[in-house]
Amino acid sequence: MSKKKTSEKKIENQHVAVVNDKSLVFFEKYINNPSPIGLEWRGQEIWLEYIKPYIDDYYVDNYGTAVGVINPKAEYKVVIEAHADEISWFVNYITNDGIIYVIRHGGSDYQIAPSKRVDIHTEKGIIKAVFGWPAIHTRVKGDKEEVPSVKNIFLDCGCSSKEEVEVLGITVGCIVTYEDKFMILNNQYYVGRALDNRAGGFMIAEVARLLKEKSINLPYGLYIVNSVQEEIGLRGAEMITHRIKPNVAIITDVTHDTQTPMINKIEHGDLACGKGPVISYAPAVQTKLNDILIESAKKSNIPFQRQASSYRTGTDTDAFAYSNGGVPSALISLPLRYMHTTVEMIHKEDVDNVIRLIYETLLNIKAGQDFRYIK
């Protein structure tokens, strides 16, 4: 191979950065703000504040799903979507000694809870507490040692009676979130709680920014949707798709990086952070739309991976696909380590490339495009 061809190859494969300093400030603020299921509106306010300069209109539904719209009068409607909610806990029982027991609110992982610091959301504001756990010296040794479970993890807010807890404003039904914050690890990874899936909300907002900054006039209406209540069954997506009635939907969520210990690749696939967006195969994924994603990635030299999701994706893709008589839908996933923990990790280059892939795909969708297999 000639030196000229070698040089061209290097340029072709060079990473294209998208996230800038301003957007990174927004991302950190957005991640650090708690937005548990049912209280997503606090994060939605931050998200809308950022995206408003890049859209023509917006609205928020009764449960908090936020929608930014470009070309709101267009008949043909394309959705790009992520979900805004984060997993959390509900206060379920307060003992006479002031100990607080919880139940899961979404897929919260009870095994990581002991020794975590938390925020209890009350009408009087945030109350601090910790997930307590007996000291190693006091626990039964050997095979009979009790492990964390939903039945035995508990919160301690420094009170010695139920009355003292209630004076703080803590009642059954209060929502509990972890207080862990955003950070950048080794200048390669974004780390924090709730990257599943506020990273998605960030990325679709960045797509809107690119469209505005590049003065792109789309031939259809674009609905940038940040849904609520995905973590308890895709509920926000179910509601909003019936209001929008889209013709096409592109969903972004996270999927598992399977390179870390104790993950079975035969079961979960061979996926890695840093190797690009993940394109899914599943019954809910419309093949012709998926082909546009793949063609867009190849044309723009965006690295990508593939994942088979069997009978369901487990994401809002399923809700959009099976609504309104069937909406051509596809899923672009962001590889993530340590899902549903407080140290979720995503690669910076993957974030850039998911944004680019959504953006390039939008440029390759035509107004009125018919995705039927047989016409």
Strand order of the largest sheet: 1-2-12-3-13-16-14-15
Quick one: how many beta strands? 17
The helix content is 25-40%
Q: Output the radius of gyration.
A: 22 Å
Order of helices and strands: HHHEEEEEEEEHEEEHEHEHEHEHEEH
| Largest sheet: number of strands, sense, barrel closure | 8 strands, mixed
Low-confidence stretches: 2-11
Mean pLDDT: 95
- Rough outline: globular
Through-space gap between termini:
47 Å
How many H/I helices?
A: 10
Range of strand content? 25-35%
Class by SSE composition:
alpha+beta
Features:
375 residues; six-stranded antiparallel barrel; disordered N terminus; 10 helices; 25% strand; alpha+beta
Describe the protein's architecture and organization.
Helices cover about 30% and strands about 25% of the residues. By secondary structure, it is an alpha+beta fold. The strands form three sheets. It has an eight-stranded mixed β-sheet with strand order 1-2-12-3-13-16-14-15, with helices on both faces. Strands 4-5-8-7-6-9 form a six-stranded antiparallel β-barrel. Strands 10-11-17 form a three-stranded antiparallel β-sheet. A hairpin with a 4-residue loop joins strand 4 (about 90-95) and strand 5 (about 100-105). Helix 2 (about 20-30) packs antiparallel against helix 3 (about 40-50) and helix 5 crosses helix 10. The protein is globular and about 65 Å long. The termini are far apart. The model is unreliable at about 1-10 (pLDDT under 50).
Short description:
This protein is α+β, with helices and mostly antiparallel strands and 375 residues long. Helix content is 29%, strand content 25%. Helix 2 runs antiparallel to helix 3 and helix 5 packs across helix 10.
